[in-house]
Amino acid sequence: MGLRSVVAGVALFCGSLVHAASSFSPARPPAIPLAVKGPYLNSWLNVGSDGGNGGYLAGEWPRFWTQQITGWAGFIRVDGKAYNWLGAPPGADLVDQTDFSYTSTRSTFVMNVGGKVEMNITFLSPVTPSDLRRQSLVFSYLEVAVHSLDGASHDVQLYADVSAEWASGDLSAIVQWDYNSADGVAYHQFERQSQQPISETNQLPNWGTWFWSTKDVDNLSWQSGADTDVRGAFINNGVLPNTKDTNFRAVQDSWPVFGFANDLGSVGSASVSTLYSIGMTQDGAINLLGEGSDLTTYPALWNSYFGSDVEAMTFFYNDYDEASSLSTDLDNKVASDSLAAAGQNYLTLTSLSVRQTFGALQFTGTDSDPLVFLKEISSNSDIQTVDVIFPAIPLILYTNPALLNYLLKPLFLNQENGHYPNTNAIHDLGTFPVAKGYPDGSDEPMPLEECGNMIIMVLAYAQRTGDNDYLSQHYPILKQWAGYLVDEALIPADQISTDDFAGSLANQTNLGLKGIIGLRAMSEISDRTGNSDDASSYLDTATSYISQWQGFGLNTAADPPHATLSYGDEDSHGLLYNLYANSLLDFGDFVPQSVYNMQSDFYPTVALDYGVPLDTRHTYTKTDWMLWCAAIASSDTQDTIIRLVAGWIDSTPTNRPLTDLYDAQTGDYPGGLQFTARPVVGGHFALLALP
User: Does the pTM exceed 0.90?
Assistant: First the structure.
């Protein structure tokens, strides 16, 4: 469980074949990342039994996280017989998938085609946190390698297409397209005919240009047209007519697709590879209310490095060897560090979380002044939600702490320029992709939560970079937020925390702890900026508060003793995940070790089949917070929590990109809540982010 699973033959019919068994390593995830590089390039294969097909690439359409199909189809002809290897188009038998595996940046499928040839199909979405030029490119690779299985040579043709569905969340929108080549790259480009910059329909952008590309070689043929026409031409002939459909039309009108076919000729034991890329470009990316009184349009960051969208696209395509090497470096680092920290079950979690976290980020600005915007995917599509950035920071700090600066910058720009009237820190900046903030102060009210989060994150960044000038730059507003914590942290008023779905509650033990650690953090910020009197004052207050907090929030008379969910509710309990910040900031025994030991001993006693419940109000749990707790627990408790979550990944019926919220008893979505593809899974790196 969590190491390698084999799913028995799935009763899924397409053509005349039924899926044979495939192995899945290191686990069979709820959904498999295919092309995941940004909020809009976010395509997955549904797996879990709630609606997926068990993890088989052939016979299931890839989908955007909303569940809109991202039409992506593939056929292969071997000695004149066609097989389907990607998507669910009619007209051919399915290839036989024998293996699936994933790393931090890759999803790889192995296919047996009629016992004659084998296909190795790799979806690579590079993650280069310290190389913003490459990270700014919202593109992903698909490599298909074919070799003989039976010792004989076979006549092989390969086909792949994408549909206009990628370009619009409104299937009645008219799309236009073209075909061209540049720098050795052949490409179809397509976009909505009516561009509506910085707006969305059904979570997909109303602006931007999409590119579907491959190498411009002699054995290549291409076609744009109706799905049945283009795919039928390949199935019947093994070649496309090199013709462009000139009838620009709605996405759902005869379903325009953009196909490539390669005649691989006689394929023997030597592997023959074909490389594709899919991605998009936008000029303006985000509107932000920051400096000045009006919204500012921030360009997509790739514009700082490339003179045109075609130049960016061809660079990406031709950069495959370097991008692949950099991705392998990251894969190996995550694997080595995860295995050393907590074993294979931990790697099962961390490696599934990287693309999903970075896939929620939009890189904007300029190479000298980058800003990174985060989309709160699926829960409400807010932009720059502070308490969604906060759980994701372990992965950010692990890969490149400078990114945290770029993520927090829009929040500071908005609030320090007078666009938010409240004394506490803002919750978010609006709805992606328009960060207009809340000039009337009407954001979701999480005042204690966000003040603590901002101060903790700012210090975590400064500790890892030595950037004390950054602390000085923002000291006035940090001091304002710390003042709120002085007034409110010890006895939290009736309010919601980041777990807003659980409802409002007064005297939350875990929330109070966050505010108190935030004050301890403000003491160090003051010290680093030469404000020694403030440093002493905040330290004295934090020290007094943490002592009182132990009396309010710990039930030491219980057997076993534990922290309560709220002060005085002795039978209640919950994940005390905010304790992690004490360790992240290296505050040592500011929170006594006895509190760590108490919680570590307690969690296994209330664990259910798939994890430790978030609190006593429900049986659901959160993967990010469980991993925060595991990171600071004893080795036995750490292993238990990680084993339960890894086991859930391998057996959950959920069928969408990794949810961070599920029922710890059933492993399914809690009633009415389907979080999916959220960047908070960066919190799974909690153990690797500790100093």
Answer: yes
Question: So what's the pLDDT on residue 672?
Answer: 84
Contacts of 237 (CB under 8 A, 6+ apart): none
410-452 pLDDT, tens digit each = 999 999 999 999 999 999 999 999 999 999 999 999 999 999 9
* Res. 671 pLDDT band, cuts 50 70 90: confident
Buried b / exposed e over 395-408, threshold 16 CB at 10 Å, is bbbbbbbbbbbbbb
Q: What is the DSSP letter of 489?
A: S
**What average pLDDT does this structure show over 25-43?**
98
For residues 279, 283, 288 and 293, what is the CA-based torsion angle, rounded to 10 degrees?
A: -170
The pLDDT tens digits of the residues spanning 208-261 come to: 999 999 999 999 999 999 999 999 999 999 999 999 999 999 999 999 999 999
Question: Measured in whole angstroms, how far is the alpha carbon of residue 17 from the centre of its chain?
Answer: 34
Predicted pLDDT of residue 9: 35
- Asked whether the bond before 30 is cis by omega within 30 degrees of 0, the reply is no
- Sign (positive or negative) of CA dihedral 332, 337, 343, 345: negative
At residue 565, φ and ψ (nearest 5 deg) are: -70, -40
Buried b / exposed e along 271-287 (16+ C-beta atoms within 10 A): ebebbbbbbbbbebbbb
Model confidence at 3: pLDDT above 50: no
For the cut 70, the answer to whether the pLDDT of residue 352 exceeds it is yes
- Residue 272 bridge partners (DSSP): 146
CB 414 within 8 A of CB 290: yes
Quick check: helix, strand or coil at residue 385?
A: coil
Residue 13 has pLDDT above 50, yes or no: no
Ramachandran bin of 613, using left for φ above 0, alpha for ψ from -120 to 50, beta for the remaining angles? beta
**pLDDT score recorded for residue 19:** 61
- Please give the helix or strand (H or E) that residue 451 lies within, else none: helix 447-465
Distance of CA 609 to the CA centre of its chain: 25
Neighbour-count burial of 23, counting CB atoms closer than 10 A to its CB (0-12 exposed, 13-18 middle, 19+ buried): middle
- Can you tell me the distance from the alpha carbon of 78 to that of 6, in angstroms, rounded to the nearest whole number? 27
Strand partners, 611: 608
Identity of the amino acid at 624: D
Question: Helices 402-416 and 447-465, interaxial angle, to 10°?
Answer: 130
Rounded distance, CA 586 to CA 227, Å? Answer: 58
Using DSSP's 3-state secondary structure scheme, residue 365 falls into: strand
Is 230 buried (19+), middle (13-18) or exposed (0-12) by CB count in 10 A?
buried
Number of H helices, E strands in the chain: 17, 33
